[in-house]
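Q: What would this complex look like in 3D?
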Amino acid sequence: MYSFERLFRLHSGKEHLQKKRIVVPHSTEDEELSELLKLYKGNKIRTTKYSLLSFLPKNLFEQLHRFANVYFIFLAALNFVPVVEAFQPEISVIPIILVLSVTAVKDIWEDYCRFKVDHLINRLLCHVYCSTQKTYVDKCWMDVRVGDFVRLSCNEIIPADMLLLYSSDPRGVCYIETANLDGETNLKQREVVSGLPLQGVEFTPESFCSRIECENPKNDLSRFRGYIEHSSGVRIGLQSSNLLLRSCTIRNTETVIGIVVYAGHETKAMMNNSGPRYKRSQLEKRLNMDILWCVVLLIIMCLSAAIGHGLWLKNLKDPVFQVDDETSPALAGFYVFWTMIIVLQVLIPISLYVSIEVVKLGQIYFIHNDLALYNEQLDSRIQCRALNITEDLGQIQYLFSDKTGTLTENKMVFRRCSIYGVEYPHEENGRRLEVYEAEKNEAAGQSVTLKSGCSGKSLSYRSLSCNRSSVSLHTLTAESAEEDDQVSSHVQPRTNAFCSRMEVVPDPQLVRKLKLLCSPVVHLSDCSSGNTSTLELSYITDFFLALAICNTVVVSSPSQSPHEASEIRTPLKSLEEIKQMFQRFSFSPFSALTSHSPPQIEDSPQSRASRDTKTNPDMAGQGVENLNREMDSDGDTHSELLYEAESPDEAALVHAAQAYCCTLRCRTAESLLVDLPGLGSLAVPLLHILPFDSNRKRMSVVVRHPLTGQVVVYTKGADSVIMDLAETPKEQTQKHLDSYAREGLRTLCIAKKVPLLEEYDVWLKDQLLAESSIENREELLLASAERLETNLTLLGTTGIVDRLQEEVPETIETLQRAGIKVWVLTGDKQETAINIAYACKLLHANDQLLTANCGSKNACAALLEELKLEVQCGEGSMTDLTARVESSSGSVAGFILVIDGRTLNWALQEELKSNFLELTCRCKAVICCRSTPLQKSQVVQLIRDQLGVMTLAVGDGANDVSMIQVADVGIGISGQEGMQAVMSSDFAISRFKHLSKLLLVHGHWCYSRLANMILYFIYKNVMYVNLLFWYQFFCGFSGSVMTNSWVLIFFNLIFTSIPPLIYGILDQDTPADTLMEQPELYQAAHTSKVYVPNMFWITVLDAFYQSLVCFFVPYFAFAGSDVGELSFGSPINTSALLIILLHQVIESKTLTWIHILVLVLSGGSYFGFVLLFSVLCVTCSPPTNPLGVETLQMSQPLFYIICILTIVMALLPRLLLRALHNTLHPSAVLKSDQMDRMNAGKYSRRMLCWTRSHSRGNRLSVCADNAGLEPSVAEVVS
Amino acid sequence: MMASSYNAKDEDGHITVSGPGGGTLRSKKPENTAFKQQRLPAWQPILTAGTVLPAFFIIGLIFIPIGIGLYVTSNNIKEFEIDYTGVDMSSPCFNCSQNFSWNSTRPCTCTIPFYLDQPYESNVFMYYGLSNFYQNHRRYVKSRDDSQLNGDTESLTKPSKECEPYAFHENKPIAPCGAIANSMFNDTLELFYNNPNGTKSEIPLTTTGIAWWTDKHVKFRNPGGNNPNLTAVFQGTTKPVNWHRPVYELDTDAENNGFINEDFIVWMRTAALPTFRKLYRIIQKKNNMVPTLPRGNYTLEVVYNYPVRSFEGRKRMILSTISWMGGKNPFLGIAYITVGSVCFFLGVVLLIIHHKYGNRNNSADISN
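A: Here is my prediction, written as structure tokens for the whole assembly.
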């Protein structure tokens, strides 16, 4: 009865599992619940595919899923049927066994690596609370179970997904670094579940008896829903900010305790862990077509043999050599068909697939090891995540690029701002940035260091990184241990590169106005002059306050312990004073300031110098004390504050605020500590954060204003959104916005709202409801946020510079010269996008700009027609004019289409698609601005599918993921915005400029290598198999072979298997330098495709010719003589081998000692094998016993006479045609080769002229924020 | 401010290089080796008219003399061939060929006269040739048991299944088993020189030395080691169906009997092509004064046993001298001369092309 009940409970538990997960402490008394806990997976991870026992069946099963292996097995099995048997059965299983075992060994090795890593991780120790010993004991990770309490110290790695229950931080927060998870090195704040006993007091697991109910494991990193039910029955909602994720690292917090809710494979980290991607390359698709042709060829050959055999038999009457004369000719023909399939099996180059894989591994190895693709500053190489599309890199026709972080550095620096309709140009700041740019150009090698270097901050960086332990769990993502070491030991440079810190030089005018706030002397005079109104001052204050607090920036100061840093210092003034001040501030601020405000200015260095003199005699004693304290702390605290933000924009704004002395000092869950000029440190009670999301394009904080006590909403967001929501935005501000955008600045609007109390109360209720709901919380939160963010008051706007990465214009120009159409797809504004396009030379001064912005579908249709007409006219008029220019320079004035997201939406619809495509085809480049991630992928898909071209998408952020996945080749830039793009990409690079080498050199090489290798492979097989086929004409189509079957099998598997691999890995048809210097070669190789159907047939024809020669020269030499079957095969085999090897010498563009070695070894292995075999094999290999054959043959001069004649005759046509072709129609590739050999001086002179003519008119500045760039240079149409 | 920032930057750069952990760091920087950076010194054979034309001339210059040499050598070889199948009514062997079966016990003999118009100086090799005989048929080639032939006693009594259907006869194992052995050529050929005085003198034919050394001494062995009593050794086996005598009665000479009978060995090495010859006898040169086979009339006496009419085969007797390159074969010489001439001709064409176009390319302008 009991067991039944138990069973029932278990059952119900399982049912329960399907909906929700209930977690209670492991020490629970409740039988049912502890049973339930046992149902959850443990923390042991096993990423291996096989176990010792399951390896053989599982691996075989997996391998048999490949068609190639099934084919092999079919052939092997066929050979066991006596009537069709061609070789001894045991010989025919060699190929399949070889292929299977090679793959199996590879799989075992990979699995073993995974096992080692798993083992390492499973054996890591952590402190787990033991309820019997009432203390924390060391336990292996794998023994951690759901419901365990785990205590972690600073810099320890989290073993499982846990709910944070206790933090030594009195505010109940802790920081985690998620670099192992998503590569983001900034700290993320996690909060203790609210409603738990006071933090700071040691947590006792026994006293915890709440029940946690949460959703089942999901792979969404940023989502966690559930509630905790205390013993009192109170339910509190849980969010992802309460969850500590496995493989993250605890930072800046001494001790945390959590309860495990997901363990092992159910953790979010493990669920997000996906293996490498499998994409099928374009070349492989075409290869499959050719393989099909090979199958057709095979069937034709087998059929003709079958028919031939039937006819031959029919004409014979009881011959003495006919072994079984009962079978009818038709049946015998049928048998022969299958025999021939076995004999000619190598015609289907099944081993080609294995070879291609090996070749691609080799190519990847070289790409991975390229110094030019290595970024010294980030210490990162290129990552090749997809192993099988290397050759697609050489076929790219369209490149879709993200802008931010891809073309630009995504290191935001505050450049200028406009407040209350007044522009503060920050000229000094701009100058500094420009000087910086010049320096960069001078010291190109160091450019990245310079940029990431933050003046005066490097010390703190270093200390920070020293604080951080170098233990990393990168291995969790199943990378090798070696990789792991390297990653962990380079936390420092990565951190360094991540936090963008730029000193902002404050605008003097703005500083002066801010000073008004605190300096009564200046105030009076200014007030009288009426320069600065009270309103404007309050705008400015609010503006900077918003900059400082409207964000999710994490503040840390590495030199101090977390406790010290987070300690809330008492405000400088008593509450009373603040209130007083506020009242004066809002009604008559200046009089209030006169009497009460101590001049605590710590803004710009200039003003700091004069600060001491500005001692106010009226200042209260307390004020002096405070001032001194601040002065003292200035040296350490101020400079050591570290901001780690989710987006670089936020960090830039906080730093900008800091430059104006609005310093965000620290942040807790409930309040923010902000220094304000003239007001000192203020605690701003934080009521809500309405986080940023891409739909709203804004974020808000709701705070209680420290001075007025009112509830204030500060909103920061994209100008398009804020301007719509703001009440009566200033015209002036809009103008400034436009001019910022023209300069290529990223603009953000800052707005505020003071909701009425009732309004706020109503909203608060909804918000709380939304927060605590489990189902569709996101939607509710979104709606709630939108309800609050209305009727905003625009405070001002900011312009943030995002500089171009180094060598971006050069790279784009190179890519365009290589015939690749570059599209920029960005979420930015049109003006910004155009400006960046100018800066990166996508757009030239003489290009004609077509802009498409329309509001409706009909308008869009009309516009597309109109633009098309225009382009046609333009082309007509331009062709005469520019024909000459074009031929010499290539960068002819063209049309650039700029289309915005809304119009793009229409254009992508079914009816307008074709028009849009036609238009874009005629344009040199297309810029899509304001596009959503979905649109990006739609555009890529449209181009890829409709034009049938090879596309490449490059991006760095989560918004590029869909585009990267859709494109044929997806490239992720590992930069500032986390690793999502990298994780979904095929190749991950660290700089945009790496693209040119990756495509032009490696892409070109990989493609030509692979294409040539495939052709060579097919040639090799057809050539050899045909020898056997020709022999059928002389053996009554009976399926006889003139070779020993071992030699026959090994010919493909051993003697000629390595040279094609070397050819495919090492051949260089053009030197790297030439490819880089002449991007046109990329296109040339692309249009005069190496691997086209023609080439396939030419290769097959050549193979036919060679096999004819190779068979019939020995045939005529031996006709009518007493030659034995094997003696006849000996010179044929030998010369076939030498022809095949020498053919490669002719085809290879480069021969290194590796080539020579491999060729010699291949030839040597053949001779060694057959000679040994013919000496040692007395009775082995029964029907075709080779004893004495080769030794005798090779001792006769006739053998060599035949071989030499055969080889020369076979290779003569190819040699001749190559020479003639190269002489009469030298390809572009070849021309450049010859160029290399030309007199160096002559060559460089010519190159100089050439580049001069190329770069004519392209002398636009590199810097994105160069004020000299005016879009008016181009005619703006429409 | 600017100055301080520079210092910081320098320091920053320094940190990047040395790293915070000191010397224990391993940079991910790829090694700058010629191999890894794909800068191995390489020979770049660019095939143009200019570069390949010396090769063509050289090939031409080497091949033509070789070809002439081969041609002359081949022409110096004397060869005589006579078809004795007996297809025509006029042929002396016509009768034999007509009423023949494998099982006939009465030997049929025919005599064919022929005339050699030139003397054969050195050793003369006597071949029998068969046409349209597919010794290379897949099933036929396999139909043998190498172990048995190697003297393995177990295989002697239990022939391999490959020999089927010639493995057992009347429940006795066949030795040697298989279709190849079963179809062994069993005509007897004898040569007589018709002396001018009208008498016939038999020409001595050597029966040994016609098989490969390795075959005779390694591959083929009589069972029972060196036991001279082959009859006992082959006890319990039976002769191949088509044979007239058992294998141990092929020759009287013990060194040429049983499996190591050279006629048998020669037959067992299957021919590559359906028209083939096999060495039958050697006519040794007597001394330097007299030619081995002087000019004059000869008679070939054939004991006609071997049926070929069913598959329209032909039987020939061939007399030939040999050279270092084997038997008479004008093909190689002609082929060498042809290829050599073609190469030479192409070399000239390439030279013209090189002069006309080669230089143009070198000066080909990228900026045209």
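A: To summarize the key features: Residues 538-557+641-801 of chain A form a domain with the Calcium-transporting ATPase, cytoplasmic domain N fold (CATH 3.40.1110.10). Chain A has 48 helices and 35 strands.
Q: Very helpful, thank you.
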